[in-house]
Design goal:
This protein is mostly helical. It has three helices and no strands. About 10% of the residues are buried.
């Protein structure tokens, strides 16, 4: 498995990612993730990694365990 270099999203990419995280869905399904990746120009893997890290950050800020399952599960 090839590992991708860590890529820091640009300000424009971050705006798209944050908008989708805050206003659309904190748990994007594979199709939505693919669309977000296409919109940002990031790979699906990079986009998924960003969402996972951002979700852990959000959970921490809310006083929730960073690794807990979704209430939707």
């Amino acid at each position: 498995m090839a590992t991708e270099k860590s890529v820091t999203p640009t300000e424009e990419q971050l705006e798209i990612l944050e908008y989708n995280f805050c206003k659309v869905n904190k748990h994007p399904d594979p199709t939505t993730l693919c669309l977000i990746a296409a919109e940002t120009g990031l790979s699906e893997e990079q986009t998924l990694k960003w969402f996972k890290q951002r979700l852990a950050e959000w959970r921490k800020s809310e006083g929730l365990p960073s690794e807990c399952g979704s209430v939707r599960d």
